[in-house]
Amino acid sequence: MSLNPIKTERKGHILAVTLDRPKANAIDLATSRIMGEVFTEFRDDPDLRVAIVTGAGEKFFCPGWDLKAAACGDAVDGDYGKGGFGGLQELRGLNKPVVAAVNGICCGGGLELALSADMILAADHATFALPEIRSGTVADAASLKLPKRIPYHIAMEMLFTGRWLEAEEAARWGLINHTYPANDLMSEAWKLAELLASGPPLVYAAIKEIVREAEDMKFQDAMNRITKSQFATVETLYRSEDEKEGARAFAEKRDPVWKGQ
Fold first, then answer.
1. Which residue in 42, 84, 110, 200 could disulfide with 62, CB within 3.0 to 4.6 Å?
2. pLDDT tens, 192-215?
């Protein structure tokens, strides 16, 4: 799979997706639609288990919406394609782990793209912000997600003032998982992806569905749905060969061999 301005690399069960739009890796409508196709293919390919999303170069991960394209006619309410902005934000049924490797400036819709991942690694020079307030608009997805990910008052400060966070502070507030020297970022992202790819894909799917669907449910209601196998992924897991393999491997004191079946 090789698309411009999206470059992909497939290695085993892992798909690396690189946003490559000089000079800043901004996303226009056409790019968003391509990303939607790429991530939909990732979701639907049973042999792919983990995705990494990153940006080309060392300065920008992604600044979000391409304002130059907007000035030339791209409508802010135009067709972003499958999965909404950046292909991840609203992609339904994505029950596989996604790792964001933030290699530089990550702001606006770029931060919203990173927030769509399950884990965020960052180069130690990366910076994060939601500057929409300064142009008189709203960071819509971030307004929904950020106050649930980091302390409310820090999230509201970012949304209200557009101030920038250095990588160290972003890690301190739990916005990102880890920081690394820039030269080590992608090797660490691949290491994490390989660890995840060696794990049980049906369990990951169940975890992601439970976390997503139970977000606004009462605890006991969510537990009842789990124990009664009312989540499709949980039902699949409990009837799978992988579930039996996990028990066998434990009893036999060996590493399990996950097949996703």
1. 110
2. 999 999 999 999 999 999 999 998
Residues in a beta bridge with 121: 101, 178
Mode of pairing for the β-strands spanning 6-11 and 14-19 = antiparallel
Copy the structure tokens of residue 33. Answer: 């639609």
Q: How far apart are CA 205 and CA 161, in angstroms?
A: 37
CA 21/CA 18 separation, integer angstroms: 10
Across 37-41, 69-73, 205-209, least confident range: 69-73
Distance CA 70, CA 54 (A): 23
Which residue numbers are catalytic? 112, 132
Half-sphere exposure of residue 182, counting CA atoms within 13 Å on the CB side? 13
Of 112, 101, 117, 89, which is closest to residue 167 (Cα–Cα)? 101
Distance in angstroms between the alpha carbons of the first and the last residue of the chain: 25
CB 48 within 8 A of CB 72: no
